[in-house]
Automatic annotation (TrEMBL), chains A, B:
Taxonomic lineage: Bacteria, Bacillati, Actinomycetota, Actinomycetes, Streptosporangiales
Annotated PROSITE patterns: HTH_RRF2_1, HTH_RRF2_2
Pfam families from the UniProt entry: Rrf2
Name recorded for this polypeptide: BadM/Rrf2 family transcriptional regulator
Region of interest: Disordered: 138-159
Organism per entry: Thermomonospora umbrina
GO molecular function, one term: DNA-binding transcription factor activity
InterPro entries (UniProt xref): TR_Rrf2-type_CS, Tscrpt_reg_Rrf2, WH-like_DNA-bd_sf, WH_DNA-bd_sf
Any GO CC annotation of this UniProt entry: cytosol
Length: 159, 159
DNA sequence: GTCATACTACTCGGATAAGAACTGTCCGAGTGGGGTAGG
DNA sequence: CCTACCCCACTCGGACAGTTCTTATCCGAGTAGTATGAC
């Protein structure tokens, strides 16, 4: 799985702690964890294309969450970065086997493919059941000072 | 996920239908689905290293299952090909953040990492609950002629 | 006829390239704010 | 003093290289079977 997934999840989390209505630039989000700014920008663009973030150009621009954290699941973020295709690639191997028919969709017929999809569905279901708000609440319960310190860090990085 | 996973799963399944005690060469397993023989051989080597297959050199050599299909889970095969590491790479991003400590294992502390691991565990659990024997039984129920036709194919490919 | 031996063909195993995907970097288009000059 | 305009700095966005991982290929080490010759 792409490394950008980790960056995207943490960046979304940090954005959820930003001042309401405030846009945070990719440079500041990157400085938070000493990440390469231009590359993080690329990932944030993907999140914007997926409708998870809104991007604002120009001075005072940056990114902010496009909808409340309760409406953003971890699966949304993962799919935005990784793409919607399944991790297990069923290349229709049976099509090349004996008695294979080109017109058959072997993702539906192949038992191996079905089992792999079932497992992947369990993974997706788990990710879809957790929202950004859930994660944020857990973090705040364990480390109550996080929201304030995050806002402070952003303010400090504003130069 | 590597394409070799699909090849490995189907090859193991085909091996489970081979004559008991018969070793099938990588070339024949590859010809079954018109796969590149040398590369499939590489995947089969990984399965052998993982203890799923036994490899025999020389004439009349090849691969066969190292243990009965009831004792081989889909997870075993996936791990043998993909490696044991998690798909979600937690690079300890928090270590570089404010107040990060180098000695902390952030896979245990980071809430994001925990949620991702939980999802991945669900995936692994699903794969571990299905054995090669289960898949084989399902295939035989839907297509009763498969065992015989598979053996015929192997015999035909023996030249 | 039997046995030992050397040979040959066959298979796995790891070392070696080609290709694709991920990671990282750069510069241009667009935008909003602030300074400035005029009324 | 107020307003309109212009310039500039700032940010995203997509186009452009470097590196790692996946995919594919090849040749050598080892082995089992077989043919051959001697006894």
């Amino acid at each position: 799985m792409n490394e950008g997934v980790e960056w995207a999840l943490h960046s979304c989390l940090n954005l959820s702690w930003a001042e309401p209505g405030e846009a945070v630039t990719a440079a500041r989000l990157a400085a938070f964890y000493r990440l390469p700014a231009a590359y993080l920008n690329k990932q944030l663009q993907a999140l914007a294309r997926a409708g998870i973030l809104t991007s604002i150009s120009g001075p005072r621009g940056g990114f902010r969450l496009a909808r409340p954290p309760e409406k953003i699941t971890l699966l949304d973020v993962v799919v935005a970065i990784e793409g919607p295709q399944d991790a297990f690639r069923c290349e229709g191997i049976l099509r090349e086997g004996p008695g294979g028919r080109p017109e058959v969709d072997y993702r539906e017929v192949c038992v191996v493919s079905q089992e792999m999809r079932k497992a992947e569905l369990a993974w997706r279901r788990e990710l879809a059941s957790r929202t950004l708000a859930d994660v944020r609440a857990t973090v705040e319960r364990r480390h109550p000072g996080t929201p304030e310190s995050t806002r402070d860090r952003f303010a400090q990085l504003r130069t």
